[in-house]
Structure formats: structure tokens, C-alpha cells
Amino acid sequence: MGLPVLTAQPTGISADRRHLTDASGRPFLWLGDTAWELFHILDVDEATHYLETRARQGFTVIQAVILAENDGLRRPNANGDVPLENLDPTRPVEAYFQHVDRIVEKATQLGLTMALLPTWGDKLETNHPGAGPVIFTPENARIYGEFLGARYRAQPVVWVLGGDRNVDSEENLAIWRAMAEGLRAGDGGRHLITYHPRGASTSAYFLHREPWLDFNMYQSGHGQRKDLVFRYNLELAQYQPEKPFLNGEPAYEDIPVRFWDYLDWSDPQRTPAGVLDEDGLIVQPAHFEAGFFEPLDVRVSAYWSLLSGACGHTYGHNAVWQMYKPGQPLAIPTLTDWREALARPGAEDIRHLHDLLASRPWGRLQPRQDVLYGLNPPDGAHLRAAVDAEGSFLLVYAPGGRDISLRLEALRGERVVAWWFNPRNGATTYIETLPAAGIHTFALPEGGPDWVLVVDAAGAGFGPPGTRR
User: Fold this and answer.
1) Residues 230 and 323 in one domain
2) Residue 4 clears pLDDT 70, i.e. is over it
3) Which residues, including other chains, have CB under 8 Å from residue 154's CB and lie 6 or more apart?
4) How many domains does the chain divide into?
5) Which of 32, 117, 285, 442 is deepest in the core (most CB within 10 A)?
6) From CA 124, how far away is CA 388, in angstroms rounded?
7) Domain holding 243: CATH number?
8) Helices 295-306 and 345-358: crossing angle, nearest 10°?
9) Full residue range of the structural domain in which residue 333 is found
10) Residue 2 above 70 pLDDT?
11) What global pTM score does this model have?
12) Are the CB atoms for 128 and 198 separated by under 8 Å?
């Protein structure tokens, strides 16, 4: 597979307020990766390898932090530079930002959109302090925002405020407002802005009516398998005025489930002796009794989100977000280093998701649970369905454990063509052509657990799902 076909950059919001759009007004599909420490840890050659890999895998957006979480103000980047002189946001270090420039330019060349966080949220005074230090006031936040907006005015970026923090005070809100105002002043309003909150939260809880918030982002977090992420979408669809929304941080592949229950944050090693090897990698995974999030968890979050109205979805891997290299200071212990993690199955599954959606007019999909027949409780086998607004195709995602009974009248014409799409390898199996009437039950094939049912109107002229149009 070459570069992704969905490579235009987002510049606006669709007329129906459901999608991000490119400069031509076409829906833009956000398939993101959390590379929070990209600018802080990797050199340009390493960053290029990372970006080229993600482009081949069908990602369209890379989420990265300029003032990074893991002591990003005091611990130099790969070139030995810190971002600010004397921790002052009004005194950026040119060498550091030239490094950011080179990586942003490389991403643009590859057709990737950089979703840039000006800072991680621990650089503001909040109820959840981190490494910090706290450096922002409304005054210097606006200056810093204007600097960034002007510097990246010509680049196809999206701005993401927040950085894993909620808005928990008026002072906090004043700083984010000032930074957003600065970004707008610097880039002339050319770029979209959203906000990355803490786990089990959405930006809408605090900021939905802020005029600078173009679309909502939520973080479902890392607390449970098969988290019912669609519940965020159902809630956000009710907010007025309508704004697009997406999950900007779901459960990461290979991160321990509820990792915070098993770590000692006061200990640089985070875990008892013997759990990690000399490179800081996990060698006793049994310490994390709840296990680790797996590729199935990644796929469930992605398909449940995208078939319940989200304008995109973000993937993450525990080693990649922190760009972990053996021996570097630990954030959350990992099973592998960042390079090995790039080829993990969950990341490769984004390629198949990308190809499936690119093979159909995905931007016309609307959540349509009414096409499902029978009981469908909100459990680990829950089915999610979406139908093309023009009636040419529909998709149903089945995590496993429940066959699909479907009302076929939702599609136009007298006959329909049914396919199974394998979200684990992208393979397609023709099922049958049948009348577009009544209720039909599709038994899940063996070899799952999860499958995507694709049903096309016979006259639509589509090829097999996942085949580029």
C-alpha cells in the first residue's frame, strides 16, 4: 500500500456541522495517532521514519505536543535544545522551534496533518499537577499563542489546547481563552482549534459555547475493555450549536488496563524490582493483573466511534506516545520500544479501516440503529450500524458474540449485495445478492471475533469493500 488516499488537510466544518472539511469542502477523515513526545524525544531522521510509517498505515493526523509532558521544559530535545529561555513563554528558543518546523514540514510532505498542542496541561495551574513547571498566565499565553499562530500560519495544522487537563477554574479558563485568542491573531483564523480533556471527559463539558472551539474532542481513556465509547457520541450529538466530535485519546494498545492502580509515581522505576529489565521494558507482565489493551480493544473503539457519528478517531500506543527508548526516564512502563511498537497489529488495523472507508462515500454515513432487528444491549457484543444518507450502502460492526439481523429496506433499489469485511487483515468475502426487503440474519463467520458487515445497493456499482474507488 502506498500513501493514504484521504490526505487532504482539514480547514473547515461541513454545512451539516458533522464533519471536518478540506479546502474543497469534502469531508476530511481524522485517523489520528498520539505522538505526544515526538518533538521532544526524536531526532529528524527518527521522526521521518515514524511519519513515513504512519502514512503507509493510513493515518491522516499526528497529535504532538510542543511543550511536552515528560519534563519538556527542562529536559532538552534530541539536539540538546530546550523550548524556552528561562521557562518564559514569551522567549522561545529558535533552535528548538526549527526542529519542530522540520518535522511539521515533513508531515505535510507526506500528506499528514499535524494536530499541535501548544503545551501539555501541566504547565498551567490545575487540580491535577504534573511535571510542569507552571509557567502560563493570560498575558504570556496570548503572546505565546500569537507566536505559534504566526509561525505555522502557512502550514496545514490543527490546534489542540488542553493537554490531558479539564478546565477547573476561572483562572485556568482565562489562560486557554488568551492562548486561543493569540493563535487566532497569529494565523488570521486559518486553522481549526479543539481541546484535549482528561479521561472520561469531553471538551463540551467546559467549552462548547466558546467561539474559538471549532469541534469537540473527548478522551475515553484507559480504564476498561470495550468501553462504550459511543455513549460520548450520542451525548455530544445533542449539544447546540452542533459541532463535530471525535475521540482524541482512547485506550492505547499495549498499555496496562487501569495502569495507575499498579504504579508508584514516587519511584522513578514505577514498579517493584524485577518487573522491568535493565532497559526499562516490562518483563513481568503479570504484575499488571488487569492485563493490557489488545488490538481488539483498538478496533472496537474505532468502529463503535465512527459508526455512531464521530468525524474521526485517534489511535494510540503506550510506547509510541512517549517515544520510549531503552534507558530513558519512564512515564508508563512499556512492553517494547517505540520503533518495534510502530508495527503492532492495532496500528496496522488502521490501514484496513482507512481502506474500507475510502472505498465508499463514507462522509454520507449516518448512525442508524433502527436498521438492526432484535435485542442489542450495550455490552461487549453491541452492534453499531450506519447507513449512507443516499441509501447506497450500510455498515454494521460486530465485536463478536452476536449475529446481525438487519432490515434491508434502508437501501435503495430492489436488490442488495452483502459482504463480510475482516477488520484484522482487510480481506473481503462475498456473501450473497438478495432482495432489499424484510429482515435477514447474517451469522458471524468463524475466525473472528469481530467483523464488519457491508451491504451495498446492487445498482450502486461498488467493488469489494476495501478496494479503492
Assistant:
1) yes
2) no
3) none
4) 2
5) 32
6) 44
7) 3.20.20.80
8) 30
9) 12-358
10) no
11) 0.97
12) yes
